[in-house]
Each structure stands twice: as C-alpha cells, then as structure tokens.
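Homework help board

Subject: predicted structure for assignment chain

Our instructor gave us this sequence and asked us to write out the predicted structure in token form, then describe one feature. I got the tokens but I'm not sure how to describe them. Can anyone check?
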Amino acid sequence: MAPPLLTLQNIHLTFGGTPLLTGADLTIEAGIRLCLVGRNGSGKSTLLKIAAGLVEPDDGERFIRPGVTMRYLPQEPDFTGFSSTLDFAEAGLTDGDTHYRAQYLLSELGLSGDENPSNLSGGETRRAALAQALAPEPDILMLDEPTNHLDLPAIEWLEKELAQTRTALILISHDRRFLTTLSTSTAWLDRGTTRRLGKGFGEFEAWRDQLLEEEERDAHKMQRKVAREEHWLRYGVTARRKRNVRRLGDLHQLREDAAKARSDLNRGTAKVDLNAQEGRLSGKLVFEAEEVSKSFGDRTIIGNFSTRILRGDRVGIIGPNGAGKTTLLNLLTGKLAPDSGTVRLGTNLETVTLDQKRESLPAGTSLKEALTGGGKDMIMVGDTQRHVISYMKDFLFSPEQARTPITELSGGEKGRLMLARALAKPSNLLILDEPTNDLDLETLDLLQEMLASYQGTVLLVSHDRDFLDRLVSSVINAEGNGLWQEYAGGYSDMMHQRKSAGGMLEELGTKAAKQNTSAGKPAPARAKLSFKHKHALETLPKEMAKLEAQIQELKDSLTKPDFFAKDPEGFQKTAASLEAAETELVKMEEEWLELEMKREEIEGGA
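My token output:
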C-alpha cells in the first residue's frame, strides 16, 4: 500500500492566548476527495493553510511525500503584481505544465484572460483564482470555499471538472450539494481535534449527531457517578473515612472531569439563536408586476415579465451572474422604474435587506459599535431593549470580541454580524442576497428553520441549491435573452419541470432574442375551472362575510371593560376564538384570491 501524500499529526496552534487546534490530525491519500467540515471559527481554514505549508503550527508534525505537488485556493486571493487574469492563472504553472490549459480554464469560466485584476467582481475574482489552482493538475488540490460568489452554471461546471480529475481534493465549503456530490471522505474539526468518517458528506450529519448523542450520554453517566460518590461521602461509614482519603481525592478529580466534559459538550453543541423580529402584518398582496420590461442600452435585461407575490411566499431568484437578479429585485421593490409595464406594491411593508457584499457594515468600527450604532451598551431588538453583550452571545460572539474591529472578523463572523443587525429590526419582508456565503452548516440549518417559521415574505437570491430546495415555495429563473420564468417548488423541482417542458423554453428564448423582448411566462394551456372551484368562488365571499361579522362580535365582547374582571376564563376563550377566526379568514381570502387569479388567467387566454 502506497504511503499517504500528506500527513498532519497532533497539530497544536494558539491564537491570542486561545487554543485553536489541540491535537488535530489529517491524512491525505492519492485520489481521495475529502471534505473538511466544522463550525465557523473552529480552525478549518487555518488547518488547511498548515497543510499547504503556509502557516507553522506551535507543535505537531507535517509530512509530505517527496515530489508531491500541491495547489491551494484561498478565500481571498492576492492579485498584487499581475496585469491580467491570464498572467495570474499562468503563475501557478511550472516548467512541465501545459500553458494552454490556463487559457482553456479561463475561457470555460467565462473570462478572456485580458481582464484587469483590479476591476474584477467577486465572482470573477473566484473564477480567476480557480483557473490558477486547477491549471497545473497537482497531486493535491486544496479548495477553501470554492463556490463562494459563483453562479449556478459555474458551480455545476466546477463539479464536473473536479469529478473527472485524479487529483486528491481537500474541500471546505458550506454548499451541501457540492460536498455531497464530490466527497468520498469527511474530516470533522470539532473543539480543536479532528474525527474521520470514511464516507462522503451525505453520511456525515447522521454520524455527527450520533457521536454527540453518545457524548451526551457519557457526560450524563459521569454526572450520575459524581452524585453517587457525593452520597457515599456524606452518608458513608465514619470509621472508614480515614482509609478513604484517596477516594475523596478521586471524587474531586471526577468532578473536574465531569465539568470539563459538560463544558466541551456545550461548546460543541452551542447554537446561534436566530429569531427574526416580525413587524405588523402586511397586506395579502406584497408585489404585483404586469408585463414589466427593463433594458440598458441595446440589452434587454427583463422583458414582459409578470408575477404576483403574496404574503408568506418564499421566492428564490436565480440565474447566472450578470443576468439581472438585482435589477429584478429593484423593479419589484420599487427602487427602479420599469421601461414599460406596471409594478404595484402591497400595504404596510416593513423591509429588511441583507446584502451579500457586507457593504452596509460601517467601516472602521468595532463589533459592538456596528450592532448599536455607536458606543452604547443597549440595542433595540424589535421593541425590546437588550444588552449588546447578551445579544452578541445569541450569534456565538464572545464578550471579548465586543471591541474587535470589523476588519479583523472572519468571513463567517461578518455573515453572522450581518444577520444580527438585520434580524434585530422589525420586518414583514426579508430580502436576502446570498445570505449563505461563509456561514457554517449548523448556522445554515438554523437560518433555514427561522425563515421557514417567519410569518412574513422572503425574497431570496442564492446559488445554494440545497438551501433553495429546503426553503422556497417558487423559483424565478433567468432563462436568457431577457426571459424570466417562474416555477413552483425549489431548485430541483425547477430542473424537473424544465426537463419535462422539453424545447418550449428554448423556443421562447429564441423568439425573445429575435424580438429583443420576451414573454414573462409561456401561454397557459387551455383549461377551465372545475365544478368544485366554481362553487368555491361563489360561496367563499358569503362565508367570508359571515366570518367577518363573527370576528366583529368577538372584538366587541373583548372591548367590554368588565369582561375580564367578571369572567377571566371566558375572556381567554373569546380571545382564542378571535385568533382562530382571523386565521381562518386569512386562509379563505387567500384561497379566494388564488381562484380568482386562476379564473382571470383562463378567461384572459380564452
């Protein structure tokens, strides 16, 4: 059996007096595809830099087999001294490498090679860095968040390219689908050490949860043992006490071990406390766009697009970089006027926006100042004042980080800070532009759970296929040539519908290119309302009127000044009945609105 290409053994590293790595190991065999996972701040990027030879550990051994070549993709590549993207991509080549491959990779990634590195966008920066890392076809390729800032076509191209290579891979990524597709082995960096699973990421989360459950059981057993020993100490036979001084010492040690086990378990299972501060209820209709178009120069970005977004919808907006996702968002939210068509905004909208570039983070300030808007100790979270240190802990920041400059925060910490600022504000409409960038997998889970229970409306721009599948109720996709198409369900549902549609969308896109305009949606097939739907359209208004009268009666009862004093239990029952009636009325209104929309669509296409 051939020796490993790279080995890290018992790696220790301390930053600022705090141990980061306390005995981490890593072994890389030829051809392996290993994903390195762990929480933000656990040291994944640092361990990868140690493996690449860029950081020296305090203790431990690093061995690389002689003659093995490596390439490392950092999260933030340095373009200093390069005049073009081609010069940068070719800098990774050695004398034995084929130079045409750098140009080939740049072309595949949508770059010409002539771009000035100082003018690159985030996505173009990542593409150029990938071309440099992939060009030499090394023995070991280390990729730190390779999908950040890439659009879906580029991510899918990268998956295929890496799946075909014989190079050993070490991957750090928050993209579940990417890791599941590529990885054959998993290393979990947890509380300074690594644990290895000989399977891909698809098996990791169940394995991790099992390990944490076993740890919880062991900690509980240790606590029970402490309780038994304390009971013996208090009630044991007095005459034997002198002969059991050693047992007393063992108890003290056991207490320390139990406390450490509980502390380690708490560190391993601590979670971000994500709760959106919800504002007042918006109207049923949030946005309605009818035949909107927008062009810049000769290029049609959006052509004749129509959609209706209702309260509680979770809509994903996807497409290649530069397709116009931000333009579409700005049209829907009224920040940008369409060239033609109309956009109607709903009532009572309270909007909170999370931008992907972290541009709203105030430069030159500390973490505490960014949260409070100054040097104050309190922050308004919804309509409640909280101490800033307490609120920081909800997002896994330590009290010592309060004065940390924003520039010194990691990408994941900046992402958590953006969430903390956004979720403190009351809202009924969340606009999230690439919210998953740099967040660890556990935080992504909690963010998804929070958004799923959020009562307002969510507009989500994302290239994370798994996150889209877990969250959104519909997807608006850029089909090309100004054509945008809306699909029910998540990303996988969209792909299935596109496949089933055959050449319909291709035909529409060709027509749009010829006319420099496009239909927002394919013409619906001829249909008619079922008897059940017709009956509902006729009866729902009457039922809603009855329910509205009932709601008014309940409200009148609750406003009687002596009702609660005379009958507290009756007051609570009436309040519960009112809440149930209002919920039922909302359901009826939305059902009627959907049926009315369907009727208008059918009659309009007749």
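Reply (TA_rk): Your tokens look well-formed. For the description, you could write something like this. The longest strand covers residues 285-296. That's the kind of observation they're looking for.
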